[in-house]
Amino acid sequence: MNLQTGIYYWPTTLKNPPTYSNLQEDLDCDVLIIGGGSSGAQCAYYLADSGLNVVVVEKNTIGSGSTTTNTAIIQYSGERLFSDLVNSFGRPYVSRHLQLCKQAINDIEVASSLGDIDCEFTRRDSFYFASYKEDVQKLQKEYDLLVEEKFPVDFLTADQIEDRYPFKKDAALYSYGDGEINPITFTHNLFDYAAKKGVKIFEHTEVNGKKFEPTEATIRTKNNHYITARHVIVACGYEGIDIKKEKKASFVSTYIVTTKPVEDFSSWYNKTLIWETARPYTFVRTTKDNRIIIGGLDENTPFAEVRDRKLISKRDKLLLEFNKLFPDIKVEPEYYATAFYGGTNDGLPIIGRYDEYPNCHFLFGFGDNGTVYSMILSKIISDVIVKGSSPDLELYLQNRPIKPN
Ligand SMILES: Cc1cc2nc3c(=O)[nH]c(=O)nc-3n(C[C@H](O)[C@H](O)[C@H](O)COP(=O)(O)OP(=O)(O)OC[C@H]3O[C@@H](n4cnc5c(N)ncnc54)[C@H](O)[C@@H]3O)c2cc1C
Prior knowledge:
This protein has helices spanning 38-47, 82-89, 91-113, 136-148, 158-164, 183-196, 240-243, 304-309, 311-325, 370-387, 393-396, and strands at residues 4-7, 27-34, 54-57, 73-74, 122-129, 153-157, 171-180, 200-202, 207-212, 217-221, 226-234, 249-259, 273-276, 282-286, 292-299, 333-344, 350-352, 360-364. The chain is of the alpha/beta class. It has a domain at 123-178 and 250-344: D-Amino Acid Oxidase, subunit A, domain 2 (D-Amino Acid Oxidase, Chain A, domain 2), CATH 3.30.9.10. Strands 2, 3, 8, 9, 10, 11, 17 and 18 form an eight-stranded mixed β-sheet that branches. Helix 1 (38-47) runs parallel beside helix 6, helix 1 (38-47) runs parallel beside helix 10 (370-387) and helix 3 packs across helix 10. The structure holds flavin-adenine dinucleotide. Residues 34-40, 57-60, 64-67, 69-73, 183, 206-207, 235-237, 239, 254, 256, 295, 339, 341, 365, 368-372, 374 line the site of flavin-adenine dinucleotide.
């Protein structure tokens, strides 16, 4: 899969990343994690203290997949409103999902604080505004649900918004306790932490053959080594569907621009994470070195050449969209990219378990909260492997029940 094109910001923030050799022998292990992106790192992190013999293989280098272009806004709210998810899944299901999202953000904060590499995790409030007057009611409904679920959130009126920001909007949800992170340093930090606990990591080691039997799998690498494993986790990001097609997954093309550092953020209330109800939406965040990341303007194309052709015009449009919000902040692009972006048709991420792959978990942390979702799924998968079960597994299986109210 041609995942992305562009000039990337995050890799420039880690000058001497840890490196790992390629696999040079046959191995036997308890758990094989395929994929060295943030999802593979989250699995390695949860399994690091399990006492199991864990191996990670990455076909390129750590973090070189979608993790490179991840804008890494860490939020509990996703593209689909929780009040809409209730219609498909019922209230108890959505309540539990909400709790797991909140817990995952806390877990990301803890994981970021362990280890030696600065993950730049910062708590931020989120500002989610109504792009159109007719969306105000939807936000009100979402607010009511979040309050009932005891989530810290305010409903801001047009006057309250004008008091805080240099733009006018009809209404917004202002929620507390979200965050932002550096996805590349986060991924390296977790792998570095896991490696120090004995997890074996190999870069430049591509899986290109597999045989699954009831009690173990045998995986062949491109340089002709074999790994036998009691459990396999496929954490190949969007490329996981090249191994097992998942019909609930869908893809769009998206665009991001990272500006040169900006001096004055005084008009940007609390450097909030900002996004909106329009689809496709535009979103903005800041970085530790005072840049602004602007993303969105998704296109419904699955063709990389169509996606890439629009990069420069989308970059310029994203800057214009930003200046509609903050006309006084002068922005110049320094890094910009376009990428495929995966979601699911019911709005929740997937743990794929398929009869033809016994003892194998496909981690499809798809959706705009990919990092948060992958934290939830990694914990569930490691619980299933280590303890034999997880009460939350059923929520995310590919064949989860849809319960109309
Ligand atoms: C533009 C963009 C913006 C995003 N913004 C956000 C955001 O703001 N917040 C958020 O939470 N999420 C966001 N996401 C989602 C987030 O990026 C992903 O959820 C996350 O990075 C996925 O990590 P991953 O490890 O699953 O995938 P990847 O980073 O793609 O890692 C998978 C790895 O598997 C390796 N691999 C594949 N096949 C094989 C094989 N056969 N053998 C060995 N290795 C293999 C690949 O080389 C790759 O390194 C965004 C995504 C994109 C593209």
